[in-house]
Amino acid sequence: EAGVTQSPTHLIKTRGQQATLRCSPISGHTSVYWYQQALGLGLQFLLWYDEGEERNRGNFPPRFSGRQFPNYSSELNVNALELEDSALYLCASSLILGTANTEAFFGQGTRLTVV
Amino acid sequence: LAKTTQPISMDSYEGQEVNITCSHNNIATNDYITWYQQFPSQGPRFIIQGYKTKVTNEVASLFIPADRKSSTLSLPRVSLSDTAVYYCLVGVSNYGGATNKLIFGTGTLLAVQP
Prior knowledge:
The structure holds two protein chains of two kinds.
Chain A: E1 5-7, E2 10-13, E3 19-24, E4 31-37, E5 44-50, E6 53-57, E7 64-68, E8 74-78, E9 87-94, E10 105-106, E11 110-114
Parallel strand pairs in A: 2-11
Antiparallel strand pairs in A: 1-3, 3-8, 4-5, 4-9, 5-6, 7-8, 9-10, 9-11
Chain B: E1 9-13, E2 18-23, E3 33-38, E4 45-50, E5 53-56, E6 61-64, E7 70-75, E8 84-90, E9 108-113
Parallel strand pairs in B: 1-9
Antiparallel strand pairs in B: 2-7, 3-4, 3-8, 5-6, 6-7, 8-9
C-alpha cells in the first residue's frame, strides 16, 4: 500500500513568489494535516483538513492557505514568500481522529527554499 | 488541549534501556497518549499508543500510571540508529468541536553513543 506522498521533494523560489505543495494521503484516509519544520526546530501545526473542509488552523498568517480535493488529496499554498518560510513542509494523513487508536502517517516532506 | 512536557535531550549508550518520560497533567478522559519518532529531514513515524497501564509492541513499551498524568516510553537495548527526536502527543480530535489535537511539542532528542 502506498504511503503519504508529497510533491515536489524540493522547491526553490524567490522572495515574493508563490509556492504550491501537494500531498496525497493514504487510500481511505480523509484527514490531512500540514506542518512546517524550520531547520533544527520542532513541527509547527499549520492546517487540518477533513472531508474537504478546513477543520483547524495553526498560528500562521493568511498567506498560508490550502484546500482538500474530493479525492482527499491536498494542496498547501504559500503566497508572498519570505525568507523565513524556508523549511521542511510535512503532510500527514489519518482516519478521522476521534475514535480509539488512530495514528497519523507522514510523508517525506517538501523542502522549500526561499532565496 | 493537554500540554506535554518532555526533557529537551537525553544521552545513552548502545545496548542500554532508555526511558523517556512525558508529563501531561491536564489529560482528558478521552485522550490517548501517542509517541512518534523523527529522524532528520524525515516525517515523524508512529511508535506506540496507549490509554492506560502498559502497552508493548515490537519496538517499544509504554507505561502509563493510574492517574495518567504522565507516561514513559521505554526503548530496550538502543542502538546508534535510535538516535532521533521522540515526541509525546496527547489527545484525539473532538470532531464535533472541530478541535485538532495532533499538536507536537518540542520533543526529546535522544543521542545514542557507541
